[in-house]
Amino acid sequence: MITLLAFIAAIAILVVIHEMGHYWVARMCGVKVLRFSVGFGKTIYTKRFANSETDWVISAIPLGGYVKMLDEREGVVAAHELHLAFNRKPVLQRIAIVVAGPVANLLLAILLFWALFIYGVPTLKPVLGKILPNTPAATASLHAQETIVSINEQAIPSWEQVSWVLLDLALQGATEAHIETRTAQGEIVQHVLSLKALTPDDMDENFLHSLGLQPYQPLVRPIIGKLVEGGVAQRAGLLPNDKILRVDSQSIEDWKDLVELVRGHPGQLMKLEIERSGTLQVLNLTPEASSEANTTVGKIGAAPYIDQRELDALLTKVYYAPLAAFGHAVRKTWEISKVSLKALGKMVIGEMSLKNLSGPITIADYAGQSAQMGIVAYLNFLALISISLGVLNLLPIPLLDGGHLLYYMVELIKGSPMSEEAWGVGQKIGIVLLVTLMALALFNDFSRVF
Fold this sequence. Notes:
Layout: H1 2-28, E1 33-47, E2 55-69, H2 91-119, E3 121-124, H3 136-139, E4 147-151, E5 154-155, H4 159-171, E6 176-182, E7 188-194, H5 207-211, E8 224-227, H6 232-236, E9 243-247, E10 250-251, H7 255-263, E11 270-276, E12 279-285, E13 288-292, E14 295-299, E15 302-304, H8 308-313, E16 315-318, H9 322-348, H10 360-373, H11 375-393, H12 401-414, H13 420-449
Antiparallel strand pairs: 1-2, 3-16, 4-5, 4-6, 6-7, 8-15, 9-10, 9-11, 11-12, 13-14
Helix pairs in contact: 1-2, 1-10, 2-9, 2-11, 2-12, 4-9, 9-11, 10-11
């Protein structure tokens, strides 16, 4: 239920902001707006305010919205209202109206990041974990517990920034990254990380793993923290604070050892030797078989005990004074927009996997996860999705704002509007492209779920 509500709230906010951009600039340009709709399909609620000519509507399908303007291409316009019609406005005004929606989304992202930077954003410190062998990071002589100070002379305050900067460099086609780190002893060390080994299939949310990089994590002791109600572990008799000593006579040094054994024994009986309040006990359980990425793994429904002090030591809070925060918010919005556009371009030319496309199911899942993590995480999610919506709508695809913008730019250059035939062909192409994109995104969503 939280996931559904968080998703609907996110879509409603982003759609209202986007369409309000179109509406506000249209009114500034003297265009009559007939309808402002949140959602598509059957009308659920409608309201017209006093001294207003606009119907404010909530529709049944909450996956978008639209602003309907007076336009001779969509119906007969009375002679006394011709000056209020969208199609009668100068081309520069029409361009401004079209661009206003995506710009509103980008401005929303800036405002959200601004507020977050003033409040302070908890984030993971850029401390390196175990360097994976036979990877570019290992070749670059990077070591665990080194803190990344800068990449190509750009300051790195968080692990998130590590990901964004390296992804941006990879999308630019850079072959290496110059990384400055600080060792646990305080010594500054220079490294050159090769990016040549990255392939299109590597360019996903786990691309840092392909480079051999991962954040530092303290040793998680094999002590039970939480149990899933009615799960395998609870039914077998495990309790919080039980320490796992051995599984099938194999010693367990940390939680990762336990996870690997459990995952490797789906549906197989396992003997656990545990320590409970200073006494030794033996329990038997059978991990539940679960499908994950086309592989069957075992799960028991247990989470480790986490020392909050150790966790807090790995976190930092990034915040700035109001004026500096605004500058960082603008810069972050620009950087994410730039990376998003480059990624889309790489997908089009086949240099990045189409598996990175996400649809409503994945977005809903992220919305639910961020909402459960707190208001800061949810606002950060809203900012990222708002940028994605703004960038996507600027793509030169008919039916999207970018497609209309393309037509009006052509009109501006040639001095006359595009023909009705060209508009019709463009609409058909746009429908095919959007349906194809949505089908791919949904396919990826279902692949991630099932």
